[in-house]
Amino acid sequence: SVLKQAQIANRQLQKIEAEHQSSLTRLQTVTATKKAADDTLAQRKRERQQTKEKLEALRTTLQAERSKVAQLKKERERLARRAKVREAEFEKLKRQIAQKRQHVDPNEIKKEAKLKLSLAALTTERAKIAASIANLKALMGKESERYRSIVLQRKSEDQRITKYEAKLAELRKLTRKVEIVSQKSKKVERRLADLRQRVSDQSKTAMRLSQQLVAKRQALRAITTQLGEQAKKLARLKKRGKRRLARAQERKLKELKLQEGMARVKLAVETKKLEELTLSMKMQRSRLDQLAHLYAARVAKLKGLDRTERQKIAKLEGLDSETQKRIERLDALAKLTKVKESELRTQHSELKELALRKQKLADELEALKKKRTAEIEKLKNVANTNTSVTQQLQRLKELEARLNTKKDEIKGLLAKLKTARDKKEPTFEMPTGEVKTRDDKPTVVKLDRTLLDTPQPIKPKPEARDGLAKIRDIKYADSKERTIVTIKSPHQLHYKLVRKGGLQVLLLSGAKIPRLLERALDTSRRPSPVKLLSSFQDRKQKKNVKIVAAMRRGSVLSRVKVTNDGIQWIFEHKKTVVAKNDDDKSPFTIGPGPDTKDEVRIPTRVGAVKLSDISTITIDPKKRRYSGKKVNLTVKDADIQHVLTFLAKEGRVNIIAGSDVRGSVTFHLEDVPWELAFEKILESKSLGYTREGNIITVRPLDKIAKERELKVKTITKQREIEPLKVRIVPVNYAKAEELQQRIKSIKSKRGTVEVDKRTNTLIISDLDDHISAMIQLIRKLDLQTPQVLVETRIVEANIDFNRNIGIQWGGNLLFSQTTGNPTGLRFPSTLGIAGAADDQQNATNGLFVNTPNFVVNMPAPIGAGSGGGLGLTFGSLGGAANLALRLTALEDKGFLKIISSPRITTLDQVAAKISQGVSIPISVVSAAGVSTVFHQAVLQLQVTPHVTQDGNIHLKIQVSKNEPDFGNVGARGDPTILTKQAETELLVKDGETSVIGGIYTRNISRQSKKVPFFADIPVLGWFFRSKSESDKRTEMLIFITPRIVNRGKSLLKP
């Protein structure tokens, strides 16, 4: 019962430790995940709200600016009219002056002076009008800047308020969590008190058992004294010749021996129980001490959490600088929206027309499908009649031909719709003039027209019986060019595509999706315009299925394609280039090159080029190294300025080339990415480029190098003048002196790093960039040293099996007058035959000399508490013949299992050692005399762990278990020492259990004793032999389990 209570107490302690550890890990994981999720969600909400507010503000400002621009245009037109009237009057006056100069009069001279005065007045009025226009423009710019500054101030204030509110909510949640953890720690203290009470109760029961053992030992001593007295009495009775009493005394002596053996067995059992109780008490005390240490460590961790929260509140003030950067990004987005609005208006009208035509064709297609189904049903009903079969077949062929033509029309319209949806490439005008070529011949322009592939005919699918089409699978696949979402179903799917801001919804009416496919797929880390894809059954309209795609950017177009096994929702990554045909000419070519048949000759007159029927060219992702669509160009002696303007419009970029960019180029390019073609053309003329925003400036390489050198010099001078800043960085776990040596390589020439040994802090004086780099390195290196808990289990198992079968038989035969069977001879007048085995306890009387009477004496080693035997005696009344037979057998089985589990916690790359055992005194004889030497027989674990950055643990282990063997003693009775030791190095994952090694031995012995010749006789030979078998198996395995105690705070994060 005491052992059971100790085991229950151990289990409860283990449960408490596991619960406490799991609560801590949960708290850490919950706080980390919640913080990350809150940060990302708040950031996305802020960005979305800011973009919305910015767009609304820009729309209002655009409307106001447009109204002002309209007013200015009207005033400009009015002023232009007045200027035209004044100019007409001036021309009239000039004509009059020219006519009247021929007849010069003083009156005419006066009129001419008046006219000059009026002309001067007109010029002054024109200057005033120009000044008023400039003033109006300046006022408009100032008003727009004021409005923007006011809007930005309001937004920044709102953002700060929301941030502070969110951080306050997080602090409140953390305080609640701290209270919960404190309550749990109180519960752990109560449980520890209960366990201590139980341990005290168990110690009391152990004392009682020890007292009972003492009493039993006293009883055993009394029994031994009784045995001595009985042995003395038996000796006396033997001397007197009282055989009967001697036999009775022998029986009593045997009974007493049995009692003594039983008492010794009970004493051994009780001693074992007492030893086990003492071991369990020691283990429980050590666990109680560990729990107390853990409790103190957890209280310290809670205090550390409070400190970190205070630091987080201080960091909130540093987030204002990030908001200003985001505001600048929004300004850039606003400029892009202005450009996109003008493009969207032109596309909107064309999309409406194409959508109407598509709807009409879809209605006609549905009508044809209904007619076809009706005709098929009619054919099934009239299949038995042979007369109308040919007519129905002809009708079917006609309907199929019409259906194919309609499908072709629909495909053409879909292709046009696809190209119209994409952003159209505006027509770009080349500067008019002549291209100077060496041979004054027209330049060849090759136009590439990528035709749409004709898809395979789609087989009609049956409608679902219950009216709900079942969706079997939804697959997501993406590549460099497009993202495809495949919806598989054995039935006809009716779909509708809806776009709402940054969301695109594919509505499947009359469909059903299984629960396994109702899921959300996060694709934000993949190179796809789709950020999140979710599929689910509509809760309001249960017969509809919605597949929602959250887009990374709002202007991505998509289309739906019907296939034989379902539908495909396709998102194009790159927009198709669409342009219009024009009669203007250009010396450049776009197309597949010399293999095409569509070749057009255009004279060298430079004009406007507008591309048509050109789709996006796909690029093999394995070979792709440059961005931009593939370009086919053939140019001969063309001016580099014209080539650059063409490439700018082809690549939809802004290129500026100065007057120092000169020369002509000749090249032929096929299927070359735009960026690669641009760079190679510049390299051929020793030109380079710089990119600022969305503007590319082309200049000679020597000028670019000079500008870079000037920029570097100005930056270095600014850094030399810039004032230094001082930061105090506290170091928690590392030594400040060591970190000082590591960060010296990062500081600037003017910077200094000093150490305050008392507070273990670093005082850094340097520029902002160097300070931030040094602080980042300090945060990476100032981590907790990993603590490793190493648990070792040494499992030993011993299995013993012994079997002995023995036999004893013998007797005597006496020929004499006393027995009534004399020999009838003078010599020998008496004759006696008896066994001669050496067994003094079983002698036969009746002759002159007592001799042992066993013929075969091969017994099994039986005794009290082991084996069994059967004895038979045959004899005559006179004692002339006696025969005794004794059969003995013994079988012994034993199983022993020993589990030793030493545990120890240590720091990374610090050796630790734990041992438990006894010191055995052994006497040593030497010339100086006999001396006593103590040998250690201990269970010992010595380990040196090293934690790698990927979470694995490298261990140097030495495990040994030495114990005394009292079964094998020396000459002076000193016991020998059994040694079991393992020493190795290995790499183990955190929390996993590994087998260091093991030893397995098995000793099998078979032994037989026999009398020669007689033992080989069949059947009768068993009376002349004995047999013994033994099988001893020992097995030892050593397991090790390392665990990183402070994994979350110690491992270096990349």
In short:
With 1054 residues, the chain is α+β, with helices and mostly antiparallel strands. The protein has eleven helices and 37 strands. It has six domains: 2-318; 341-422 and 452-572, Immunoglobulin-like (Sandwich), CATH 2.60.40.3470; 428-451 and 577-713, 3-Layer(bab) Sandwich (Phage tail protein beta-alpha-beta fold); 722-782, Ribosomal Protein S8, Chain: A, domain 1 (2-Layer Sandwich), CATH 3.30.1370.120; 811-890, no CATH class; 894-1050, no CATH class.
Give an overview in words.
By secondary structure, the chain is α+β, with helices and mostly antiparallel strands. It folds into six domains: about 1-320; about 340-420 and about 450-570, Immunoglobulin-like (Sandwich), CATH 2.60.40.3470; about 430-450 and about 575-715, Phage tail protein beta-alpha-beta fold (3-Layer(bab) Sandwich), CATH 3.55.50.30; about 720-780, Ribosomal Protein S8, Chain: A, domain 1 (2-Layer Sandwich); about 810-890, no CATH class; about 895-1050, no CATH class. The strands form eleven sheets. Strands 24, 25, 28, 29, 30, 31, 36 and 37 form an eight-stranded antiparallel sheet that branches. A five-stranded antiparallel sheet has the order 6-7-11-10-9, with no helix packed on it. The protein has a four-stranded antiparallel sheet with strand order 4-5-13-12, with no helix packed on it. Helix 1 packs antiparallel against helix 2 (about 105-240). The protein starts with a helix and ends with a helix. Mean pLDDT is about 75; it is low at about 425-455, about 575-625 and about 840-850.
